Amino acid sequence: MYYNTYKDSLANHRLLELGLSPEILVRAVTEGQLAHSNCTENDPRIFSGLAVWARMNRSLREQLIPLGWTKGEKRGQPITLSPEKDVAIVVFSGDDATGCPDRIPQPRNPKGTATLAAVEMNKQQLILFPEYRHEGKATPDRLTWVLLFARDKDFVRCELSLPSAVEKDGTVMTWAERIILPAITLGDELVVSETSDEPPVDVEVIRKSS
Amino acid sequence: MFNPSRLTLARQRRGFTKTRLAMEVDVAVRSITAYEAGMTVPKGETIQRLSKILAFPDSFFFADDIEAPNPEGVSFRSLKSMTAGKRDAALGASALAIELSSWIDKGFSLPDPNLPDLQDDEPEAAAEAVRADWGLGEKPVRNVVHLLEAHGVRVFSLAEECLEVDAFSFWRNGIPYVFLNTKKSGERSRLDAAHELGHLVLHRHDLPRSRDIEREAQRFAGAFLMPRSSVLANVSGLVTVPKLIKLKHIWNVSVTALTYRLHELNVLTDWQYRTLFKELSTRGYRKSEPDPCQRETSQVYAKVFKLLRQEGIDKRSIAKALHVTPDEINTFMFGLAFLSIEGGNQSEVVSSSAKPNLQLVPSTRG
Q1: Could you write out the DSSP letters of every residue in B283-317?
Q2: Separation of alpha carbons B325 and B58, rounded Å
Q3: What does the alpha-carbon distance between residue A98 and residue A159 come to, in Å, rounded to a whole number?
Q4: How far apart are the first and last CA of chain A?
Q5: Nearest alpha carbon to residue A162 among A101, A125, A119
Q6: Measuring CA to CA, how many Å separate B289 from each of A115, A210, B187, B245, B305?
Q7: How far apart are CA A53 and CA A89, in angstroms?
Q8: Which of B106, B109, B243 sits opposite A206 (nearest CB)?
Q9: For B227-278, what is each residue's pLDDT tens digit?
Q10: Which CATH architecture has domain B1-65?
Q11: Which chain B positions have a beta carbon within 8 Å of A194's beta carbon?
């Protein structure tokens, strides 16, 4: 299956065409992880995933609305929409291939009707306006991009990708474009020893002979 | 002979205005003014009432001249928000502490002051210079009070009456003095001690008003406790609140001080710093330190008291020599006191501010 994968400076360039930057998207992912770090063992298990997803959407909007973007929600799916309404961003949690250019990622959870409809629209646009792919022109109607993120022990990997097809059951997606973003290092394996290895200070106190 | 300066000091130490003292002792305000000016000497009966109200022994008012440090030469953190009364109470307390310190100097030889004079340095550079001077390298400071004492700084705790004051310091006769509020968290108190060290090395001499000496001392404190290379070597990856709580144990600093320092060193971007600070507030960590460290106390006074105790000199005899009450002494000494057991020799130096033992008690509810 043919698709474009952008990395590093090409990724930055492609994001610029979409009116975005790696900083904005990476910050959204990072804010999501900060929300994750605020969850405790006592929160319901599904909560941390929800908190991350909610915070990433909020962060995208907080950063992009001042740049003219708008927010919307269709069939329960939050989107962030570009000023020209030709780019929409949704946030999905991805599998362990997320952010790896030589593997093909999939969303972690099956998607519902809102996603199916959005991807179907992507598909139609990409068929009707083939020049979009080659010349990077805007399509007349909206293309929905997915901000995919996946956390493992050491990193959070992420990418902004354009799905061109999805299985009817909402599981497997085919990508037309993938923009690989810088991974975020977690470094949670921090070991801090509570006892300092320096010798204690000894203050000399001498009794004067009277 | 009745010593007017001692009446002023005792009154200020207790935070009394002349009006309040006059009322409590049942004399006219102008009489108090006259006693303090040395124009009249109070009658024996009045001295007894003064002594009772101000909680100083009679003899206190007949000892040698005593003078509180000049407020100009003392670095108070929040001088603007502090009333003159609070300031004078703190200065009065410090005058008594200096007396105690001089008394100790007569009987004990303590480390000589060894502080570099760095008034022209940037705070960060000054912190590095002090570390180099004292051979600390990049290592965390295990105990700031002991470190200061080992370099000749006389460190005292602040009395109950002065709790609005975080900490203050001054030079007097070539000796550096630091006073710490011990009601704050252990981490906060360590930062205060480092802050005062900053004042002592950076602001020993009169400086132009344009310099923001509080900010300089604060930056010094952060850099002194959390050296740049040490921070950069230990902090990697995404900084979260749980990670901050782990990391702070490396340097024994508060989560807020660490967050501030990470931002200063550009480990955190502006938005990360703001986001983390907001979360620290939400969790209440700005008011109550998570996973707090133990409070530091003086090593010098612990040793002095122990040696004195071995010679059979107790708190009461020291108090008598200084014309103050035994409790008065304890307020400057981090609660380090003799555990005086009448007729016994089992006494040890203990901290009276030690945490109480908590026990689980079976519930009586059914």
Answers
A1: TTTTTS-SSPPPPP--HHHHHHHHHHHHTT--HHH
A2: 11
A3: 7
A4: 95
A5: A119
A6: 46, 47, 8, 10, 31
A7: 13
A8: B109
A9: 999 999 899 899 999 999 999 999 999 999 999 999 999 999 999 999 999 9
A10: Orthogonal Bundle (1.10)
A11: 249
Instruction: Return the sign of the alpha-carbon dihedral for residues B305, B307, B312, B318.
Output: negative
| Residue type, position A201, single letter | V
Close Cβ partners of A33 (under 8 Å, ≥ 6 residues apart): A52, A151, A156, A184, A186, B238, B240
Q: Given a cut of 70, is residue B340 above it in pLDDT?
A: no
Interchain CB distance below 8 Å, A187 and B237: yes
Which of B349, B344, B343, B341 has the alpha carbon at shortest distance from B308?
B349
Q: Which chain B residues touch A37 with a CB distance below 8 Å?
A: 238, 240-243
Backbone angles phi, psi at A62, to 5 degrees: -60, -35
Closest to A192 (Cβ–Cβ): which among B110, B150, B247?
A: B247
Residue B191's φ and ψ, nearest 5 degrees, are -65, -40
Judge whether B131 is closer than 8 Å to chain A, CB to CB: no
Beta bridge partners, B195, equal none
Q: How many CB pairs under 8 A join A and B?
A: 91
Q: Which range (A29-33, B35-39, B133-137, B337-341) has the least confidence? A: B337-341
The answer to whether the beta carbons of residues B336 and B298 sit under 8 Å apart is yes
* Burial call B97-116: b when 16+ CB within 10 Å, e when fewer: bbbbbeebeebbebbeeebe
DSSP state of B356: P
- Cα of A107 to nearest chain B Cα, Å: 24
Q: Are A125 and A137 in contact (CB under 8 A)?
A: no
8 A C-beta contact, residue B152 and residue B112: yes
Distance CA B304, CA B154 (A): 13
DSSP string computed for B145-184: HHHHHHTT-EEEEPPGGGTT--EEEEEETTEEEEEE-TTS
Report residue A34 as tokens: 């900060």
Strands B75-76 and B167-172: what pairing? antiparallel
Residue holding tokens 């090409």? A10
Q: What is the ipTM of this complex?
A: 0.80
Q: Which residues of A touch B246 (CB under 8 A)?
A: 190, 192
A27, A198, A203 member nearest B299 (Cβ)? A203
HSE-up (13 A, CA, CB side) for residue B327: 6
Residues near B106 by beta carbon (within 8 Å), at least 6 away in sequence? A208
Q: Which two tokens stand for residue A172?
A: 């497997």
Q: How far is CA A112 from the centre of its chain?
A: 19
pLDDT at B93: 87
Residue-range domain boundaries for chain B: 1-65, 67-222+298-366, 226-296
Over residues B69-75, mean pLDDT: 77
Quick one: CA dihedral B118, B120, B126, B129, positive or negative? negative
- Residues forming a β-bridge with B69: none
